[in-house]
Amino acid sequence: MMLHQTKVKRRKFMQRPFRFGVLCEEMGDREAWFAKARRAEELGYATLLLRDHFVPGTFGDQFAPISALMAAAMVTSKLRIGSMVFDNDYRHPVVLGKEVATLDALSGGRFEFGLGAGWMGSEYEQAGLSFDPPGTRIDRLEEALQTFKGLFAGTSFTLAGKHYRITGIQNFPAPVQQPHPPLLIGAGGRRMLAIAAREADIVGIMAGPLNAGLPTSDDPAAYSAQRFDQKIAWLREAAGERFTQLELSVLTTPVFTNNRRQGAEQIAQKRGWSGIAIEEILEMPTIFVGTVEQIAEQMLERRERFGVSYYMTFDHRMEAFAPLVDQLSGR
């Protein structure tokens, strides 16, 4: 299938320095976890990240993120830790707000607060939780964001919302990072992108929204440069003057190879994409194919076009991805 091609007015973005994060899927035991955190720091990664799930899904068994991230912080000195992302529905915001502030305080100001509206319907069902329609979950997320920012302000906080009623709560401890730890919101649809534009410090741009617990990003068009341009335009429109303050992030699919065409064909085969031009795959903003030098050049070009400077990779690619981290971090 050929993707629809449109002419896009390309804008140059403020050049934020590159940084890189490791999203962990392979847990191992206590010593393996400590070793992974230390190795990520040695290799120059900025962040070590964990999902927030209590069933394996397609990504395997996961540690509980709060305690595991704190343990990682205790065996490192510079590595930042982050949630990718906390499901807002799994904890009351007063409870999670206290956990986040404590993580930031005890890590010495190294926590990054990733938050989402929840998406994995089967997990909700297994846990006996109500999986409300997307609009309701997003409404609840917006109230939670008000709550977190109110709690982190350090004064008595009250909210009479539709989903949360909070009276005179004063959070302790105060986060080290002020006014609050950097807030990352993962977003793929227009409404979530608008919320992220207004409220987040970091926007994790997804290929598409997650509906009914299922990803809607199997269509290659969702990964296209044209679709990504549209998301950036939505972000810019909603953010207004604060757009230049946003750090833009994506989870990458890298293929290290001397033959870019074959690498792109491998991606198409693995994802079941048929009839798509190889050139379109090679232009997708989250897909990087080639040698380390070629991929580094692609990242430089895409930062200029799309403004993305924060790239994440899975832990099983941590070593292979490290030369890029070495070449580009802070650049």
Automatic annotation (TrEMBL):
Domain Luciferase-like as annotated: residue spans: 37-212
Domain of life: Bacteria
GO biological process assignments: alkanesulfonate catabolic process
Short name of one Pfam family: Bac_luciferase
Keywords: Flavoprotein, FMN, Monooxygenase, Oxidoreductase
GO molecular function: alkanesulfonate monooxygenase activity
Tagged with keyword Flavoprotein: yes
Statement: the UniProt record of this protein carries the keyword Oxidoreductase: yes
Stated name of the protein: TIGR03621 family F420-dependent LLM class oxidoreductase
Species this chain originates from: Ktedonosporobacter rubrisoli
